[in-house]
Amino acid sequence: MMILGLVQWTQPVHGYDVRRELLSWSADKWANVQPGSIYHALRKLTEEGLLREVATEQVGARPARTTYEITAKGVAEFEALLRKEWWNLAQMTDPFMAAFSFLPALPREESSAALRNRATQLRAAVQQLEAAMSADWADNKPIYVSWMWERSVAIWEAEIAWCERTATRVETTDDWFKPAGAACPPSVP
């Protein structure tokens, strides 16, 4: 979706410019768009008829650059993907949740410390994003980019509060490791 949308906005466009723009958005961090996969995705989208090559040119000894445009089929696919993400709630995959499901496998003190450390890391991420939001270069971004950043800050602040509450529960709740009616897991301190 990201590549189709970006090609549509900036067409005709070279793969290098698509890559550069997505990296400037830090899409590799929040949209799972890896820089090394962009050229492959452009070729695949072209094979599927969603994009078309407009021209290939080479300047001097530099590698050849292919320029892309979106096709009518690509516009329809982009709009379908966009609407799917706007109108449907998707469960985010978070490896932390898998680790948290084994909370009793770690000593109480380590679990609590890990939760507080996670809160500290999230606070640093909030400060970094807030600094980026107030930087001069952010003025050149569309207003909705700051809205996206605000969403991230709100999510992180909610998780910070949850981490702190849960760390306190781990520290103060007896039998926190034992679900109702279940046997205690082995080697729980």
Automatic annotation (TrEMBL):
Family matches, as Pfam families: PadR (PF03551)
Position of the signal peptide: none
Domain Transcription regulator PadR N-terminal stretches: 3-79
Taxonomy, superkingdom: Bacteria
Protein name, entry field: PadR family transcriptional regulator
Species of the source: Paractinoplanes deccanensis
